[in-house]
Specification:
disordered N terminus; nine-stranded antiparallel beta sheet; 311 residues; single chain; mainly beta; globular; 2 helices; 43% strand; eight-stranded antiparallel beta sheet
């Protein structure tokens, strides 16, 4: 009996050490799951709900293409993220412009001709419908970034973050650069306008001039040549009860309620795919465009994603 008791105690100590090692690794590496199950079936919390963190400090990029899936891969904090480019878009790259640390991510679209829709984007995370989640990221636009020309039909768009759901239609949630507010030459004003758009089954994923206008839920501004922190609390629900809160540099800018997202079917997904980067319409000609991103986070609470960190 004494031998059996000794074996039992020894095994228990080994299990405890293994559990502690797992928990420690989870804290250090920001595990994909919010919780880790120990060998005793006890659920232990690892970091307060932060699921995904991209800071670029020790990141690397592979440009190996998987046709129809991705054009490259970003490796950061033990995770893999898809990189996308179309048209005149260039694969996002790690650069020395950053908000924290020493490295950030640059999205680039080369000068292009009308008719060529282009993107340079990082795919971050799938967000399920009917579940509250929070996201946050820093973005920087330099003095040469162009807003795009005025269009009465709202067909000129330049997205810098989107939540994609219908492969054949407009994303249900975007943040976009506002074009010039008056007809005439493109400008490089010190302040850029941006808009929050939210769509649903009523507005449909097939834009018209009327639904483009109706989808605009908020118009704000951001100064060039400085970093801005954007965050959102999202509960996307096509059938109702949805809500979205938009924060900029710690300030609540807009709360949207009602219907958000599309009803899933054979082509429309039951999740939103969050991306950051540049995605531009092909209805106008664009010059060379850059935007920089850093401190990209996805979690369960606004605190997880540093919504109130003022740049």
């Amino acid at each position: 009996m004494k031998n059996l008791l000794f074996i039992f105690i020894a095994l228990s100590l080994i299990c405890c050490k293994q559990d502690n090692a797992v928990l420690e690794a989870g804290v250090n590496k920001l595990s994909a799951s919010d919780n880790i199950a120990t060998s005793n079936n006890i659920i232990a919390t690892v970091t307060p709900h932060l699921d995904t963190y991209i800071d670029l400090e020790n990141a690397s990029i592979s440009n190996v293409t998987v046709p129809g899936v991705k054009n490259g891969t970003l490796y950061d904090n033990g995770r893999e993220f898809s990189l996308h480019k179309t048209g005149d878009g260039i694969l996002p790259s790690i650069e020395g412009r950053y908000s924290l640390g020493s490295r950030g991510l640059m999205a680039t679209i080369a000068a292009n001709s009308a008719g060529q829709t282009s993107r340079s984007e990082l795919g971050v995370k799938n967000i399920l419908l009917n579940a509250e989640r929070c996201i946050g990221f820093d973005v920087y636009f330099d003095g040469s970034f162009m807003q795009g020309p005025f269009r009465y039909d709202f067909s000129n768009w330049c997205i810098f973050t989107q939540f994609w759901q219908d492969p054949n239609g407009a994303p249900p949630i975007t943040l976009e650069i506002m074009p010039d507010t008056i007809p005439g030459p493109w400008n490089k004003a010190p302040v850029l306008g941006y808009k929050l758009t939210v769509r649903n089954d009523v507005l449909t994923s097939t834009p018209t001039p009327a639904t483009r206008a109706s989808s605009i839920r908020y118009i704000g501004t951001m100064a060039r040549k400085r970093w801005h922190r954007f965050a959102m609390k999202i509960y996307a629900a096509p059938a109702g009860g949805a809500y979205l809160e938009l924060y900029q540099n710690g300030v609540l800018k807009k709360r949207v309620t009602g219907l958000i997202g599309y009803t899933p079917n054979t082509t429309v997904h039951d999740y939103l795919y969050w991306k950051v980067g540049l995605y531009q319409t092909g209805s106008v000609s664009w010059p060379l465009q850059h935007a920089w991103f850093d401190e990209i986070k996805y979690g369960r609470t606004l605190g997880d994603v540093d919504y109130d960190r003022i740049q």
